[in-house]
Backbone:
């Protein structure tokens, strides 16, 4: 028999075919109601955010501050009611490094306090120093002779003046409009990775490490720098070479003191010196440097599963931060959301089918060290024949991560996993009223979900709103610019996604292997 399909029926069939997968993914509206009630009317997320940013403070990987915070958070997980709370060592990292004191002043030609922070994994100044500031422009080997013997006791300005970005002041930071979200959805081709430009290699160019070694030998009082035009902010990371020497005590002590300064204060000194007028500064830095190499750890905790307890749904965020502020947005906000999502699930009496495991990573800021080591240890790596995949590899459903600031979830990135579109889209339905609508197939990067995605496991980041703030990786990232509404909604949405993944009939589908 020949079936003649009428145009209307054909269109209807097409419509059904397109809609069916999402419509057949169940949404547990009863549980969503409980999660929303708990998370929006009895939220603790800002209390968590406050404790971590106000009391614990900055948490540089392998610092005493981080170790103290990791002890606290294990207690917090236990108070929430999680089981199997543990600190899992993942590598011999290096020695601990903590800044204990910074004092920085312009003395001449005009007195003014200045704002600066030591670069991580550098030594202190060995007492209070009054030093003449001098601009140094070291680029090639021949420059060394120009400066040799002239820098003893000086405070050297080693980076050029920076241009301050006034955009945030003049333009503001608008949230995503519907048109922006739709544009993100329509961008179906994953952005290609930029090809680094070919540089002309000069063999006599000095590396950052060679420059530091020169300053050390020459006996400078301190290296002063500013590498960011971020308004009023100090941005500074690790000593060049610290990763290569394994954050070692010897490496730290072989470096001069390095202080990153706000662009306004740095540029001011630079301009005065440009007039030929002397600049005198007073500075003192004290850093506490560990004696022995210690292991870095990730912190995990679980809500046990029931009939599918050997299968796992994970959520998490990196617990480590840079050292010049508590980093309220990056990534204390992600940690607060992950912990609050777990608290909500416990508070509503969730008994998931699969085990739900929260992981708070360390070593993310230095290169995803904690999550990569965890994935390798627990799930294996099909790209590496020496370890292959472990039995748990097939048992993981999905890992959800938050690390794009403190803005509200407005959608989800599929990370190129079209197989998961139906489930991840269906679970969004209860949150349309919150503006959680966009499904982008883009693959996004640079944080801990990548550690899962790169070995073929579903690792998912939410699409987060742009919100004004003082920004991550600065000395300005405190509690005050975090918007409570955004984090409360995120915790609710995270808890609901985790719940649905942990109770679905099937694990989240994976990308088609090529
Ligand atoms: Zn981050």
Residues:
């Amino acid at each position: 028999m020949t079936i003649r399909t009428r145009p209307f029926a054909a269109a209807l069939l097409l419509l059904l075919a397109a809609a069916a997968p999402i419509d057949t993914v169940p949404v547990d509206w009863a549980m969503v109601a409980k999660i929303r009630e708990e998370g929006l009317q009895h939220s603790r997320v800002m209390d968590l955010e406050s404790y971590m940013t106000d009391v614990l403070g900055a948490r540089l990987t392998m610092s005493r501050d981080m170790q103290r915070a990791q002890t606290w958070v294990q207690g917090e997980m236990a108070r929430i009611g999680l089981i199997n709370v543990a600190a899992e060592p993942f590598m011999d990292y290096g020695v601990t490094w903590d800044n204990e004191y910074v004092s920085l002043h312009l003395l001449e030609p005009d007195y003014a306090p200045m704002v600066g922070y030591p670069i991580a994994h550098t030594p202190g100044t060995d007492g209070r120093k009054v030093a003449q500031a001098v601009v140094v422009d070291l680029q090639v080997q021949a420059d060394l002779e120009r400066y040799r013997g002239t820098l003893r006791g000086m405070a050297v300005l080693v980076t050029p003046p920076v241009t301050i970005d006034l955009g945030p002041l003049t333009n503001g930071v608008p949230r995503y409009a519907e048109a922006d979200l739709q544009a993100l959805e329509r961008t179906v081709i994953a952005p290609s990775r930029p090809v680094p430009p070919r540089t002309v290699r000069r063999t006599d160019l000095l590396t950052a490490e060679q420059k530091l070694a020169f300053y050390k030998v020459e006996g400078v009082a301190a290296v002063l720098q500013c590498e960011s035009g971020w308004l009023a902010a100090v941005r500074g990371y690790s000593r060049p070479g610290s990763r290569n020497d394994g954050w070692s005590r010897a490496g730290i002590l072989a470096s001069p003191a390095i202080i990153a300064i706000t662009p306004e204060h740095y540029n001011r000194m630079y301009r005065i010196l440009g007039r030929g007028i002397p600049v005198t500064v007073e500075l003192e830095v004290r850093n506490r440097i560990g004696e022995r190499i210690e292991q870095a750890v990730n912190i995990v905790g679980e809500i046990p599963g029931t009939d599918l307890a050997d299968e796992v749904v994970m959520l998490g965020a990196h617990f480590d931060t840079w050292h010049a502020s508590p980093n309220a947005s990056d990534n204390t906000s992600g940690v607060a959301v992950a912990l609050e999502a777990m608290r909500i699930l416990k508070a509503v009496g969730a008994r998931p089918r699969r085990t739900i495991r929260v992981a708070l990573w360390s070593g993310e800021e230095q290169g995803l060290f904690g999550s990569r080591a965890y994935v390798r240890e627990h799930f294996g790596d099909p790209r590496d024949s020496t370890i292959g995949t472990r039995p748990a590899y097939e048992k993981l459903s999905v890992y959800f991560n938050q690390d794009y600031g403190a803005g509200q979830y407005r959608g989800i990135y599929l990370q190129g996993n079209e197989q998961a579109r139906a489930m991840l889209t269906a679970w969004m339905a209860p949150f349309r009223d919150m503006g959680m609508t966009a499904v982008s197939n883009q693959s996004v990067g640079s944080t801990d979900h990548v550690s899962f995605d790169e070995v073929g496991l579903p690792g998912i980041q939410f699409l987060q709103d742009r919100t004004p703030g003082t920004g991550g990786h600065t000395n300005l990232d405190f509690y005050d610019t975090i918007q409570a509404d955004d984090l409360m909604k995120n915790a609710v949405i995270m808890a609901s996604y985790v719940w649905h993944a942990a109770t679905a009939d099937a694990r989240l589908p994976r990308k088609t292997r090529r």
User: Anything to note?
Assistant: Residues 1-20 have pLDDT under 50 and may be disordered. Residues 328-347 form the longest helix (20 residues).
